[in-house]
């Protein structure tokens, strides 16, 4: 197979016809951005938001240490039985970057409160931060280098995932599965100092390593495997491994295999590299479940509060969502739920708990078989409509007294979290308050840090 320039590589589908792959290829364009991005070119709001997402996920990792999934991931990583250079967050263990990436990704999945890039729908931090942090620690990279690598990783994920659209996939897939490895590969390639050419090969490996199925609502460690694959892609390329540079747009490449062809808007999306930064399209979550439910949950909470609505005063609720959500049934399904994970993702159940208590109560969500909640769910109807952005929602609530109230929106931004308080939820016990204070201060000036190892030292218990 050729290297991907005009006339060198396999053809790309355009309607029913195939044309030569243009030069530079998609992997080469993305590699040029990942390698060429300078910290000085990243707007200050993007830097600050990237730091906020790092803090958010380190806080999640610290609180997940005591859970079954978290402790299991740590045991799996430690089972390889060798010392290494990369920290497993909240433990004294340092292992190889691949194993640390595996464990830390699961830890950062705590309570499903990870972040999401929209409209791509990818949990970007899970697949970029653990591998980047591990490699940055091992290679003693600066905080500035880590931040730049992460911003580049988010960009690669978003520029590929945003124009794809879940409706164009041949079969339903969680977006992090196909697009996640590209972010980790780009971030690690940057930290390893790979050339544009080697980075393009890393992205080619990433195209081969997106994996996982949508069957079943949850597989414990599959995001950990995706993150590990991104790191492995960059490592393979760093040692001279080669992939077809036309692996994305080629006749038998990524787009034609997993989707229905190259997305029409992809070229425009790639044209925004270096101009629009995908970290600005990402949001963290403050309650369990899919990030797609943030807007309708916030709209419902506001209506219930503003109009003093309750379970006993509500006749019915109609929720209007984008038709693009039709393959993500768990996100708006009705009871019965086959598991707690499915219940946690259901917007219908979330709205029922808001009507019952005035707020989304995660503890109440766990009681998803309660008859009163099931009955409330029966009053909630979901309608899928064309012509809306992926996060759009309109909530219509009819009250028994004849009132009908409506709210709609397509975006929501949470207020910034108190970093020390957030890290303390799990970190007070794992690290101690003095160490947490130092960790918070170090993260606040991350871009000034000479060696990321000075940060990761604070993520390990002392003594």
Structural overview:
The strands form 4 sheets. This protein has a 4-stranded mixed beta sheet, with helices on one face. Strand 1 and strand 2 form a beta hairpin. It has helices at residues 26-36, 44-63, 68-78, 97-108, 124-139, 143-161, 176-192, 196-209, 222-238, 254-258, 266-270, 294-306, 340-345, 347-357, 362-365, 371-377, 419-430, 433-444, 453-456; strands at residues 11-14, 17-20, 86-87, 94-95, 115-117, 282-284, 314-322, 380-385, 393-399, 404-409. It has 19 helices and 10 strands. The chain starts with 10 loop residues before the first strand and ends in a 7-residue tail after the last helix.
Key attributes of the depicted protein:
disordered N terminus; two-stranded antiparallel sheet; four-stranded mixed β-sheet; 19 helices; 47% helix; alpha+beta; 463 residues
The helix/strand order is: EEHHHEEHEHHHHHHHEHEHHHHEEEHHH
In spatial order, strands of the major sheet run 8-7-9-10
Report the uncertain regions: 1-9
Helix content: 40-55%
Main sheet attributes: strand count, strand direction, barrel closure: 4 strands, mixed
Number of helices: 19
Span between N and C termini? 55 Å
The quaternary state of the protein chains shown equals: single chain
Overall pLDDT confidence: 92
Structural class: alpha+beta
The number of strands is 10
